[in-house]
Amino acid sequence: MLNLVLPAVPARIGTGEKEVIVVTNGDLRESANVTCWPTEAAFEEKLRAALQKLGYTMKRMGEFHKERGHGFISSQREGSDLFEGIDPEAPVIVLLTVWNYAHHLAPSLVHHKGPVLLLANFEGTWPGLVGMLCMAGTLTSLGRSYSRLWSETFDDEFFYTGLKTWLRDGAVNHKLGYLKDIKPTHPVLATPAGQIGQKVGEYILAHKEIIGLFDIFCMGMMNAVFPQQALVKVGIPMEGLSQSALIVEMNKVSPELREKCLEWYEQRGMKFVYGTDGARELTREQVMEQCAMMIAMARFVKRFGLAAVGVQYQQGLKDACAASDWAEGAIGNAERFPIPDENGEVIRDGEAIPCINEVDMGSAIPQVMLARLLKSLGLPNETTLHDVRWGSEFNGTFYWDFEISGAVPFAHLKGGIAGATGYRQNPMFFPYGGATIAGQGKAGRFIWARAHYEGTDVIMHIGTGTAVELPEAEFERRRKATDYVWPLLNAELDGITRDDLMAGHQSNHLTIAYVDEPLLADVFKAFVAQALTQNIKVRIAGNADSLLESE
């Protein structure tokens, strides 16, 4: 006879009339949770006041942990246990004012039957809006419906209208007219540029552009981990690599080669802000370790015949060596230290090796596609992803602040290598330091894209934009309002407002490749045709669809 014994299920907490449950998801890193808690606490009070104004009571789930110094949910286990005690029909607001690891809550939200609102503060101090976009993309990929809302103050008309609508209807919907579906048989395929894109797409499907990823599932980004069938369907399969193997390969790089590599960049004008206290300041030894990492990454690229390479870089690696950021930006640049393999042969000399920052497969797809297309056309083919980090108006125009957490290819910076500064990565996140590649993003036109998946289908949003070089004082203001030691690109997205992107983007990331204005329309057509050829469902963003009709 079977004898079933299971742990007792806690009594489930529901909501009374005019009550709403609020949960606060946070980071896995306790140092970040403690630092960011005051911002979260302030916005909790703003939300409480807003709900009271609308006649509702806020019921917060989860306690302030005095011994830990914060009240965030900081692990998947904690999030699962919390939701086990919530009535599955209860309305839930997920308040996001900092970076959060989406997997802490996403599995529980999928099983929750009540309405879910992802609510973010739109400010630069800590990336709540970035975390909301990540959670939104995660829930989309998991097939879970949800609503999203954002505000700078939690006291504006847009916020109150959205919150009131969600409380009444269990959903708030935003207009997504800025996204336009492109049919698989679109006439662009028959244009000369489109035929070029088809050929590149067919080459990738036949040849395979293999992405080598050193561990996956970075920073809790479930939306960045694609089903293998989805990757194979578009001709971009994954080679799974281990960060422990990367450490082994780094240890084979001699001190002499590390020094030679660093000197190469110093001679070309890159500035490093060195100190003597390695626990808080950048040291030369940290950067030389990053040189060893770049060399090791390139050797894996040659060994496995990779089209691109990415490093998970957070959990595990950050506790073993210097941060990967500088290595990631440097390897993705065509002008690069000549990296020798074990036999002294230079690896892909003068050729950018796309780096899949944060091993985001949704960025990997457009990065390797654009890199192959631009290379085939004889054009500069550096690519990078950026965080959709923040944005604000300057002289009446809204400019996005796009930042990747540490480094971009030098070719994307004003002044190139000589325009780059290496600062120490934040000790709060990176105990062993390492340099960033910081600077102002160069002015110019670009194509942007980001893929996500629904089931095993790959969907890609594609648009265009303009990077601008803002006056020094305004650029400094934005650096200080976000993360000073990271590279910052200020940009407008063609035909897309701030709220458009917040309402419809399916990731905290987007990929960028610069293309000179005279060639932009033809390259855009080719890229769209390439994506259609590679079995990708295309949605054109903003007014970039006008380029498809241009002569």
List the keywords.
Rossmann fold, L-fucose Isomerase, Chain A, domain 2, six-stranded antiparallel β-barrel, five-stranded parallel β-sheet, 35% helix, globular
CATH C-level label of the largest domain? Alpha Beta
CATH level 3 topology of the largest domain: L-fucose Isomerase, Chain A, domain 2
Give the overall form. Answer: globular
Give the neighbour order of strands across the main sheet: 11-12-16-15-14-17
Count of DSSP strands: 18
Report the portion of residues in β strands.
Answer: 15-25%
CATH architecture annotation of the largest domain: 3-Layer(aba) Sandwich
* Mean residue pLDDT: 96
What is the count of structural domains?
Answer: 2
N-to-C CA distance = 78 Å
Note poorly predicted spans.
none
**Main pleated sheet:** 6 strands, antiparallel, barrel
Description of the molecule:
- This protein has 551 residues and is α/β, with parallel strands linked by helices.
- It has two domains: 19-169, Rossmann fold (3-Layer(aba) Sandwich), CATH 3.40.50; 182-549, 3-Layer(aba) Sandwich (L-fucose Isomerase, Chain A, domain 2), CATH 3.40.275.
- Helices cover 35% and strands 19% of the residues.
- It has helices at residues 30-53, 76-84, 106-111, 128-141, 157-169, 192-207, 228-233, 243-250, 255-267, 284-304, 325-331, 361-376, 472-481, 498-504, 517-533, 546-549, and strands at residues 19-24, 57-60, 92-96, 116-121, 147-151, 179-182, 211-214, 238-241, 271-272, 308-311, 384-394, 397-403, 421-422, 444-454, 457-468, 489-493, 509-514, 537-541.
- A six-stranded antiparallel beta barrel has the order 11-12-16-15-14-17, surrounded by four helices. Strands 2-1-3-4-5 form a five-stranded parallel beta sheet.
- Helix 6 (192-207) packs across helix 12 (361-376), helix 9 (255-267) packs across helix 10 (284-304) and helix 10 packs across helix 11 (325-331).
- The longest helix has 24 residues, at 30-53.
- It is globular and about 70 Å long.
- It starts with 18 loop residues before the first strand and ends with a helix.
- The model has no long low-confidence stretch (mean pLDDT 96).
